[in-house]
Amino acid sequence: MFFPLVATVAAVVLWSLVALAVLGALCVVYGVLIEHHWYRIQRYQLPVLPPEASGPVRILHLSDLHFVRDDDRKTRFLASLPEADDTILTGDLLGEPEAVERAVAAVRPTRGKAASLFVFGSNDLYVPKRVNPVRYFLPRRHRAATRGRPKDLSAALDADGWRVLLNERTELSLDGVRFEVVGFHDPHIYRADLRLAPRTIPSAVGLAVVHSPDPAPELAAMGYDLVVTGHTHGGQVRLPLIGALVTNSHLPRRICMGLSRLGPSLMHVSPGLGTSKFAPFRFLCRPEATYLDLVPAPS
């Protein structure tokens, strides 16, 4: 009686393992062949304008496109996007240095009517390297990096009408509303200079633009009404009930994607439109272009 029972249990375990392996393989195929390129448009309405403003002011937020030379589907999706008043691209435009010209041409149709802003991510500065996924679960360590073509990228974007903000502040007027804007270099590689962060025009709408969301709590504490950021890819792989497995950020995983409130401020973390060319896979985390419609706050 004992041995048949053991054989039955062993068979059940074996078939369960086979079923899990098949299911895992199907998930990988889905993540690579379908969701990796299943682009979508997301929209949010944010009450951050002065009550007397007419609004809305439409911002198109793009991030982490990770362009390579043969990104045809992503290029077609970008060309189909509706026009915005201001387009903000929060870094990691490049997936390889050879794609500078292709990437700049692809984002050309997305430029805003009044302004187009860009901040650097680490992949815009350095040549991406293949990374063991397990490293993302370990403490961050410095790695040797090969410099890419950041000067070429910055010059091409500037010539195309983008304002490249590398630890700089500027002012914008969008639909008659005054904005105080600060754009930071990538804090993930310790390039952000937060000495620029204190507000200087408190009567204007404060807009902070940065690749990684790590400094968002400090920016909210300094009075910025809206912080736009990317870097996390929304986790890139998310599981039901669990959410993102890893985000490569110090912020809690539950706010690594989408719209969140930080005290009186709002933060939008884009899940991005691309992935590293070494990990072309998404699961329950579709690539996204986001429209942020800024409307008057209640009186």
Descriptive overview:
The structure is a single chain. The chain has one domain: Purple Acid Phosphatase, chain A, domain 2, CATH 3.60.21.10. Helix content is 23%, strand content 24%. It has helices at residues 2-33, 72-79, 100-107, 122-125, 150-159, 216-221; strands spanning 40-49, 57-62, 86-89, 115-118, 163-164, 168-174, 177-183, 205-209, 226-229, 238-239, 243-244, 258-262, 265-269, 288-296. The strands form three sheets. Strands 1-14-2-3-4-5 form a six-stranded mixed beta sheet, covered by helices on one side. The longest helix is centred in the first third of the chain and has 32 residues, at 2-33.
Q: What is the compact description of this entry?
A:
By secondary structure, the protein is an alpha/beta fold.
Shape: globular
Low-confidence stretches: none
CATH superfamily: Metallo-dependent phosphatases
What is the CATH C-level name? Alpha Beta
**In the CATH scheme, what's the topology name?**
Purple Acid Phosphatase, chain A, domain 2
Count of the domains: 1
Counted by DSSP, the helix tally is 6
Radius of gyration from the alpha-carbon trace, in angstroms: 21 Å
Arithmetic mean pLDDT: 91
End-to-end distance, in Å? 78 Å
The CATH architecture? 4-Layer Sandwich
Say how many strands there are: 14
- Helix-strand topology string: HEEHEHEHHEEEEHEEEEEE
Q: Biggest β-sheet: count, sense, barrel?
A: 6 strands, mixed
- Helical amount among residues, as a percent range? 10-25%
Beta-strand content: 15-25%
